[in-house]
Design brief:
The chain is α+β, with helices and mostly antiparallel strands. The protein has 16 helices and nine strands. A hairpin with a 2-residue loop joins β1 and β2. It is elongated and about 75 Å long.
Length: 419
């Protein structure tokens, strides 16, 4: 990719991008003209980022020569917030209200990927039904016209938090009082969803965000199942992704691995138990399984190592709660998520968690770039094989395996607050 080198080229692209007002742009141009030595493009970009006039994402894209894609209807795209199986999530600024939000985007180039759109719409509609402090709310579902076709997006609460998977990756196992505090929050949010008839079906560390006070929020209801009214969407997901893809193997309930259609709220309780196990141990219940099939077989037929053998300081009563959440027979689990919340409450204690959110964003941006590069390469290979243009970078033919798109943060990012 050819990068801009001269300040004049950078300023020309900046003007075309509409990221700065004419008045502010004129000030930037004047400063460049008054400089003793003519700055290069990189110097101008860095100075604007340092001054808070551009974000790193915007500056990097301008240096790459991009002048489009900074605005989606009323929203200005500021930073990469994350990436996943359906696309990318950005920190966006509502130009109308001045509010910062999370904007999740699914781009289509020339035709519709029915499976992704069904899941995307299910997640957005579920998020609009839910109103609870422990659940990421969805405020708007929208569509814009892009360079290659329609751009589907949803606008959600912006939480400047860290994923539980990121937290464990950075700082190791979570102390059991803090882990119980997180689970208490998640269980309360799930109870709210369950009362409305929604089963999440993909509870896992990557779908739980925590803030600096260890308060948790659940995200991604893209695999949620509700009433009979969603039967068509459910059928679409099952046919395109396969029933065995409706969930994440390390956390999936045994009955969900067999038949994702007939699960109830107790499937989420199992997944939350597997997540709590992960938080306390720093690894999944069956870490030595090499394939998805092997992991699912273990979920169906094996018991994980005893939690107190791995965490000797764990109270026996708490170990019994976890074992009950992880019962193979759903009739032996807690009946409701509220019951889980009440059971862990005596063991829960919040603690301040110190993390550098900008560092986390930088890491997520690197992972998003790697993921996009992977998908671009796959798209090119498919296009070369078929002599047809691929409809979307997130289409079925270009999606990488789940393990390659899970967010993870390297341990060199600092996090405090571990006991």
């Amino acid at each position: 990719m050819t990068m801009l080198t001269t300040a004049s080229d950078f300023l020309e692209h900046l003007e075309r991008s509409k990221l700065l007002s004419p008045e502010l742009l004129a000030e930037v141009v004047a400063k460049c003209e008054q400089a003793e030595t003519s700055p290069d493009a990189m110097t101008v970009a860095k100075s604007l980022v340092k001054a808070g006039k551009l974000t790193r994402l915007q500056a990097n894209r301008l240096l790459e020569g991009r002048t489009r894609g900074y605005f989606i209807n009323d929203y200005r795209i500021d930073e990469v917030l994350g990436s996943g199986g359906m696309g990318f999530v950005y920190i966006a600024h509502n130009m109308r209200t001045g509010e910062d939000v999370a904007l999740k985007m699914l781009c289509e180039q020339s035709e519709v990927d029915a499976g992704l759109l069904a899941r995307f719409r299910l997640e957005a509609e579920a998020g609009q039904k839910l109103n609870h402090h422990a659940i990421i709310r969805t405020h708007e579902i929208g569509k814009a016209i892009g360079l290659y076709g329609d751009i589907h997006y949803m606008v959600m609460d912006l939480v400047r938090g860290v994923g539980v998977d990121e937290l464990v990756s950075m700082a190791g196992p979570i102390a059991w009082p803090v882990a119980c505090h997180i689970v208490r929050h998640v269980a309360a949010g799930l109870h709210h969803a369950h009362r409305l008839g929604l089963v999440h079906r993909d509870i896992k560390p990557a779908n739980i965000l925590v803030d600096e006070n260890a308060n948790a929020k659940v995200l991604d209801f893209g695999l949620s199942v509700a009433s009979q009214a969603e039967q068509d969407d459910e059928f679409s997901l099952a046919m395109i992704f396969g029933q065995d893809c409706l969930g994440t193997a390390d956390y999936i309930a045994p009955e969900q691995a067999i038949d994702s259609f007939s699960v109830d709220r107790r499937a989420d309780i199992y997944s939350l138990g597997a997540t709590l196990y992960y938080m306390l141990c720093g690894h999944v219940m069956f870490p030595n399984r090499q394939t998805r099939a092997e992991t699912i077989d273990a979920q169906l037929n094996e018991e994980p190592p005893r939690i107190r053998d791995l965490v000797p300081s764990l109270p026996e009563e708490l170990a019994a709660i976890i074992n009950r959440m992880l019962a193979k027979n759903r009739d032996h689990r807690f009946e409701t998520a509220r019951g889980v919340s009440a059971a862990v409450a005596p063991f829960a204690k919040p603690k301040h968690i110190s993390f550098n959110f900008q560092q986390i964003l930088d890491r997520r941006n690197i992972l998003a770039q790697q993921r996009k590069k992977l998908m671009d390469e796959r798209a090119k290979r498919v296009a070369a094989q078929t002599s047809l243009s691929v409809c979307t970078l997130d289409s079925k033919t270009t999606r990488p395996p789940q393990a390659q798109i899970e967010t993870s943060i390297h341990k060199d990012t600092h996090v405090g607050g571990k006991e």
